[in-house]
Amino acid sequence: MDRYDLETIGAMLLGSLGVGLNLIFLQATEAVGAPQAKLVLIPIFAGLAVSLSGFVSDLRRHGRDMVIVDRICAGMILYVALSVACAVFFQPRFD
């Protein structure tokens, strides 16, 4: 296994963790009727933007570096970090 294999496996694990965090956050906001559910879109679009930038930079480069894998891994890290931030900072309150 080389570095790109480990980055790919890590990106898949981080993506699964981020999806799980977002599902828990959405269920919690739905349970109390909180309007913060749309905040889940922030980590999704931020992670996608970073990941998709790897395709653009790969089209410009003609080297042996796997820019796509690096950017997808970075996008998944950002996705999980923002998902954790949503879950921590915007917890629904029971009245």
Keyphrases for this structure?
mainly alpha, 95 residues, elongated
Question: What order do the helices and strands come in, and which of them pair?
Answer:
Blueprint: H1 3-32, H2 41-60, H3 67-89
**Distance, first to last CA:** 52 Å
Number of self-contained structural domains: 1
Going by helix content, strand content and strand pairing, the class is mainly alpha
Q: Label the overall shape.
A: elongated
Largest sheet: none
Order of helices and strands: HHH
Summarize the structure.
The protein has helices at residues 3-32, 41-60, 67-89. It is mostly helical and 95 residues long.
3D architecture notes:
The chain has 95 residues and is an all-alpha fold. It has one domain. It has three helices and no strands. It has helices at residues 3-32, 41-60, 67-89. Helix 1 (3-32) runs parallel beside helix 3 and helix 2 runs antiparallel to helix 3. It starts with a helix and ends in a 6-residue tail after the last helix. The mean pLDDT is 83.
